[in-house]
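As a warm-up, study this chain.
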Amino acid sequence: MVKLSVIVPFYNVRAYAPDTLASLRANVREDFEFLLVDDCSTDGTPEILERAEREVPGAVLIRHERNGGLATARNTGLDAARGAYITFLDGDDWLAPGYYEQLLAAAEELGADFVRTDHVQCTARERKVFRAPVGRRNEVLRPRDAILPADRSTSVDYPMAWAGIYRRELLDRGLLHFTDGLRTAEDRPWIWRLHREAESFAAVGLLGIFYRRGVASSLTQIGDVRQLDFIKAFDQVLEETANDPESERLLPKAVRTYCAVISHHLGSIERFEPSVARKLRSTSADALRRMPQDVLKDALDGMDGERSSRLRRLRRRATGTPAVSGAAGAA
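Now compare it with the structure written out below.
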């Protein structure tokens, strides 16, 4: 029986894949499988993965015939996974030796649907620890309670799929697949759905996953139109949350987070290609109009002056109105 399935998408990461694969080799166990999903790489990554399939115990190479993006590649791995537990790793990140054995032991001891972990962010030679924003550690909690409060960083603001481990039952219930085709922010609808629909989770203080930031080929570094998929991702969050029985309680958090992400992108708009920058402004203004206007008003009133002013200006230019209306709108 396979105890743990590790899903690792790769796309044009020839410079980093050897480190990733070496760290998997340092995490081998006879009941672990490593699903290496090549998302139609063109830079020599496929040859590296072919060697890894021969040399890393438990490695299984899966090839895409066309590039589908991270969400689609993860879904391919999920469809092939056989493990009682599932986790993720990106093809340019790496692990501490023996990390997965520790993570699995923590998950089995706690018995929760899923467990979230801390991680180390690596930018060139700089190392910085990021903690999962869950105050109570090593304790089984109710996931939807960790969505709030709306005005603080909570568990849904820590969306990285690789920062955790997930029971197979979540996959069987349809909660682990990603929205196919999303090129960025694919973790956002995913983490919200987990917290709304799973029954239990926990956070642990393990440090064994190293996230490589600043990779030139990463979408977080590229200012093309694929970045704008965050609009689709958060529209999905709003739609699904609006249909939740506790929508009145949860929507303020969803709207506030959506606004914060829009403001973040507008604040660094110079990194986008000119045509993409124009589309960012227009699609963001449309997104503000789609939000429930009473909830939006409260969100803008509660944000800091810089972010609030940026969003109010965008909305005024798009609608010609002097300020955000308090009238309720469609979700």
